[in-house]
Amino acid sequence: MKTHAPRKRFGQHFLTDDAIIDGIVREIAPRPSDAMVEIGPGLAALTQPLVERLGRLTVVELDRDLAARLRSHPQLQVVESDVLRVDFGALADVAGQPLRVVGNLPYNISTPILFHLLGFAERIVDQHFMLQKEVIDRMVAAPATSDYGRLSVMLQWRYAMENVLFVPPESFDPPPRVDSAVVRMVPRAAPAAVDPKQLERIVQLAFSQRRKLLRHTLGRWLDEQGAGGSFDVQRRAEEVPVAEYVALAQAVPARAAD
Questions:
Q1: Which end of the chain is more exposed for a tag (fewer CB within 10 A), N or C?
Q2: Higher pLDDT, 99 or 225
Q3: Which fold would CATH assign to domain 196-257?
């Protein structure tokens, strides 16, 4: 079978380091009873050790040539699609149980993928993703730090997350120009009841000019909605904990998100 040249338009960097692969598999800890979906299996470096432990595995692959290769594997169900179009709820229905989702996400669309999966969190057991390290730093950042932002708030509302493994550039072919890492994301069993669109609108406004006090951005919008109450807008966006953004989203009338 001919070799596959990495395609820049798909953000392809293939994992080749056996020690890192073993480390990721240990963190995932796959079991035969799991219903697992791998995003971006590529040349199956992670796919093969996973399926050996699982017995079966669903993979989502956009690259037509790679999807054709993967179909020759008898233990794989191949979904040839843009992951942003995949209905993970339907995959959970087919499996008859919640999913475990893993993958080496294309760095150029990692944030859209994370937000897409946010809508299926109630059907997911956990997620283990390899991402650009600086993205994971933002995901797990605490308030009052430079990495804390929109991604931190939106994901921490719904998941407990931790950076579990560092992955250097030389672990890939071709090597990316950035450090990578693996994040574990576990959906919260009882997340605060909030409209995600409302929360996203508020967080987007808050961080639109993160160096300014919130009274210049979010505060003006809250005044227009006749909402906000005791919410302190004499702070910068990065100083507000996740719980306060969530509480504000619950308090502002739903029509304000339209």
A1: N
A2: 99
A3: Helicase, Ruva Protein; domain 3 (1.10.8)
pLDDT of residue 255: 56
Q: Is 61 among the annotated ligand-binding positions?
A: yes
> pLDDT, tens digit, for every residue of 133-163?
999 999 999 999 999 999 999 999 999 999 9
Quick: pLDDT tens for 23-41.
999 999 999 999 999 999 9
Question: Which class is 8-187 in CATH?
Answer: alpha beta
3-state SS class at 46? coil
The response to whether 248 counts as a known ligand-binding position is: no
Alpha carbon distance 241, 235 (integer Å): 11
Residue 74 has what DSSP assignment? T
Structure tokens at 21: 């692969």
13 is in an annotated binding site: yes
What ranges do the domains of the chain cover? Answer: 8-187, 196-257
Is 15 within any annotated ligand binding site?
yes
